[in-house]
Write a structure and sequence with these properties.
Pfam families: PLDc_2
GO molecular function: phosphatidyltransferase activity
Shape: globular
Protein name: Cardiolipin synthase
Strand content: 15-25%
Mean pLDDT: 95
EC number: 2.7.8.-
Keywords: Transferase
Structural class: alpha+beta
C-alpha cells in the first residue's frame, strides 16, 4: 500500500511539473505579426469627415462608472450582456449583481460572460451570484473554466470588459466590476476609463454591431462553458438581500430606472471602430499592437497610457518605429505608486531598453494608481479599452479597444494626460530627469527595496506571463 501511495505521489508531482512547464514555456513561443491582418487594416476606414450615428461619453470617475452601469441596467427592457474579467461579490460588485437581479426579475434576458479563473476564485462561493444565475432568463458563460482538461491552457484569459443593453448602447473600457474600480471608495482603488457609446439610429451603429458580432462569436467558442438557470427556493435569502441593496441604490441614485438623457449627455464622434486580439483560448497574433502600429504610421505625436510596460523584442521594435518619426510619450505608474508589483519590477529590469526606443517616459505619481489603457494619435484619434502594453495582453489574452475619431474626446483625454504628466517624473533616454509641477516624490523604504530586489530575480524567466 505504501509503495502504491508513493508511486501515485510521484506520478502526481510529475504531472504537476509538466503542467507548470507547459504553462510557463508555451507562451515563450510568440506568434509573429499577421501580414494578412495588416492588409485588412489598410482596407479599413478609421476616420470620417462627418459625424456618425454613435455618440460617446468618457467616464474616468469610479462613482460615475458605477452610476452609468446602474442606469444602463436599470433602464434595460429586453436584453443585457455583461462580459467581465473580474466580477466580485464585494460591496460594489454586489450592487451590480443586485441591479441585474432586478432586471432578471422583470423578465430581461441576461447573458453573463466571465473569465474562468476569476469566476472560480471570486464567484463560485457567492450565494448572490448563484441566485442571479438561477433565473431561467439568465445564462452564464465561463471562458476557459478551471477544469482538469484545461490545466494546460490556464494562461489564456478573457480580459474583455463591456456591457451591452437592448442592442442600443454599450460601455467598454478597462474597468473590472469590483470595489477597486467602482463606487466611492477611497482606499485600495485604481483609476480607469470607460467609453459609453449610444446609438442614435435604429441599429446602424457600426461599432455596436461589431461588438455584438464579437460577443456572439466568443459566446459560441468551444472554450466557453454555458450554464442556464433553474430557480430554487434555497436562494430566497439571497434574492431578499439583493432586493434590499437595490432599494438602497434607488434612494441614493434616484434616476437609475428613469434616466433618458443619453443623447444630451454624450458628444458626437465621427467614427468608432472596434479592434480585438482574437477570441480563442490559445496563443494570439498581436493584432491590437499591429493596429496601433498601423494607425501611428503617419503620426507626429503619440501618447501611450498604460499601467506598466512589459515588452519583448517585437514590441520594442514597434515603439522604436513610432519614435523614429513621431514624438512618443509613455505615461505609466511610478514604481513607488503602482499597484501591480510584477509590472513595477519588470520596469526596474527593463527601464534602459524602454528608454532606448526613443520614448519619453513619465513615471506617474498620481493619488491612486492608474489602470487606464489608451493611445492618443495626433489630436484626433483615441484608442481606448483593455489592452495593456505587455506580453500577456499582446499574445495570451482576449482584448478589446475602440478606435475613436473625435477631436472633442481627444482634447478631453489630452487634458487628463497633461495633468498626469505634471504629476510625473519625465525620464529621457540620455538619463535626464525632470519633475513635473505637481510631482510629489516618494522614497521606497528598505523593506520595499528588498521586496523588489528579490522579485527582480524571480520574474526574469516569467515575464511572458505577467
Amino acid at each position: 500500500m505504501k509503495k502504491i501511495l508513493k508511486r501515485t505521489g510521484k506520478i502526481f508531482c510529475l504531472f504537476l511539473l509538466i503542467v507548470v512547464l507547459v504553462n510557463v514555456l508555451s507562451p515563450l513561443f510568440c506568434r509573429k505579426p499577421d501580414e494578412k491582418y495588416v492588409e485588412s487594416l489598410r482596407k479599413t476606414e478609421f476616420t470620417s469627415e462627418t459625424a456618425g450615428v454613435e455618440r460617446i461619453c468618457c467616464i474616468d470617475d469610479n462613482e460615475e462608472a458605477l452610476l452609468w452601469r446602474l442606469r444602463m441596467i436599470g433602464t434595460a427592457k429586453e436584453s443585457i450582456v455583461l462580459s467581465t474579467f473580474d466580477l466580485r461579490a464585494d460591496d460594489n460588485g454586489t450592487k451590480i449583481l443586485a441591479a441585474l437581479n432586478c432586471a432578471a426579475a422583470r423578465g430581461v434576458k441576461i447573458q453573463l460572460l466571465i473569465d474562468g479563473i476569476y469566476q472560480q476564485l471570486f464567484l463560485a462561493g457567492s450565494n448572490d451570484f448563484q441566485a442571479l444565475a438561477s433565473y431561467e432568463n439568465v445564462e452564464v458563460g465561463v471562458y476557459n473554466p478551471v477544469t482538469p482538461v484545461n490545466l494546460f491552457k490556464v494562461n489564456y484569459r478573457m480580459h474583455d470588459k463591456y456591457l451591452i443593453v437592448d442592442e442600443k448602447m454599450y460601455l467598454l473600457g478597462g474597468r473590472n466590476s469590483n470595489d477597486i474600480f467602482l463606487g466611492n471608495q477611497t482606499k485600495g482603488i485604481n483609476e480607469d476609463r470607460d467609453i459609453l457609446v449610444y446609438d442614435t439610429s435604429e441599429g446602424q451603429g457600426e461599432s455596436l454591431n461589431q461588438l455584438e458580432d464579437y460577443f456572439h462569436k466568443i459566446w459560441k467558442e468551444s472554450c466557453v462553458s454555458i450554464k442556464k438557470g433553474k430557480q430554487s427556493s434555497r436562494y430566497t435569502d439571497a434574492y431578499r438581500h439583493m432586493e434590499e441593496i437595490y432599494i438602497s441604490l434607488l434612494k441614493r441614485y434616484n434616476d437609475i430606472e428613469t434616466y433618458s438623457a443619453w443623447e444630451k449627455d454624450t458628444i458626437e464622434a465621427n467614427k468608432i471602430t472596434l479592434i480585438n486580439n482574437g477570441i480563442e483560448a490559445g496563443r494570439k497574433t498581436p493584432q491590437v499592437l499591429q493596429t496601433i502600429q498601423y494607425l501611428t504610421e503617419n503620426a507626429d505625436h503619440v501618447i501611450i497610457q498604460t499601467p506598466y510596460v512589459i515588452c519583448n523584442g517585437y514590441m520594442y521594435d514597434v515603439l522604436q518605429g513610432i519614435s523614429d518619426h513621431a514624438k512618443l510619450q509613455i505615461v505609466l505608474n511610478a514604481v513607488e505608486k503602482g499597484s501591480n508589483p510584477w509590472g513595477c519590477t519588470d520596469y526596474l529590469n527593463q527601464k534602459k531598453k524602454i528608454l532606448e526606443t526613443g520614448a519619453d517616459v513619465y513615471e506617474l505619481m498620481n493619488d491612486y494608481p492608474v489602470h487606464t489603457k489608451a493611445v492618443l494619435i495626433n489630436d484626433r484619434l483615441s484608442v481606448v479599452g483593455s489592452y495593456n502594453l505587455d506580453m500577456r495582453s499582446t499574445y495570451l489574452d482576449t482584448e478589446l479597444m475602440l478606435v475613436i475619431d473625435s477631436e472633442k474626446l481627444s482634447q478631453q483625454i489630452h487634458e487628463t494626460e497633461s495633468d498626469y504628466m505634471e504629476k510625473s517624473k519625465e525620464v529621457l533616454a540620455n538619463g535626464q530627469e525632470t519633475e513635473g509641477a505637481k510631482y510629489q516624490g516618494k522614497v521606497l523604504n528598505r523593506k520595499k527595496k528588498l521586496y523588489y530586489g528579490v522579485l527582480r530575480i524571480i520574474i526574469r524567466p516569467l515575464r511572458q506571463l505577467l
